[in-house]
Design a protein that fits this description.
Elements: H1 3-19, H2 21-30, E1 62-65, E2 68-71, E3 77-80, E4 83-86, E5 92-94, E6 99-105, E7 112-118, E8 121-128, E9 131-134, E10 140-144, E11 149-152, E12 156-157, E13 162-165, E14 176-183, E15 186-188, H3 190-209
Antiparallel strand pairs: 1-4, 2-3, 4-14, 5-13, 6-7, 6-12, 7-8, 8-14, 9-10, 10-11, 14-15
Helix pairs in contact: 1-2, 1-3
Length: about 210
Amino acid sequence: MNGHQGGVQALSWIVVLSVSVGIMAELSQSTPQVIAEEPMAAEAAPANPWAGASFPLEKFTAYTSPFGYRQHPMGGHRFHYGLDLAAPMGSYVRSWWEGKVIQVSDNTACGTSAIIQSGNWTHIYCHMVGHMVIEKEGGRVLVDRDGGTELRQGQIVTSGQRIGRVGMTGSTTGPHLHWGLKYDGVWVDPALVIKAGFDYQQLQTAQAVN
């Protein structure tokens, strides 16, 4: 499967899951046929792509900038490869899924940031508090001492684990989390993923009641 086909398939899942409760149930049963196996089990996504996921932000207040073309706050009309979620300065950021931290950084427009790989999915977290420390052995660690978090490149994180806090590092005009998602290397609108996850949870609740 190439990147374009993978992105189309991911979006197809999301749209269908958001429309029909019955089809959502059918897709949840067939998901293992679509999610590719990874060499390391800890990096693989859960068997059901909508079960066990965590909303990526505590004390969330509003969506401030959607995925797609927009008037960039720094000037110009540009494509926004993610979803901006506002929260008070210092609010904790949580890992959307269990996975492996494949990159930490603090020297780009993304500011203090982390990238986590979960099977076919890549999730990106930008503008957090703290800084990166490069150890003598070459290890790279994001450190936020006031928030009590350390995130090491290469470590395994769980769904919902605190990985940092909302800050104003990098290119930003206010405290928020920029959250980006890719499926097989193709950018996906995080808002559609959030809606699909919510719809799945509603389905599970309805089935439990019945």
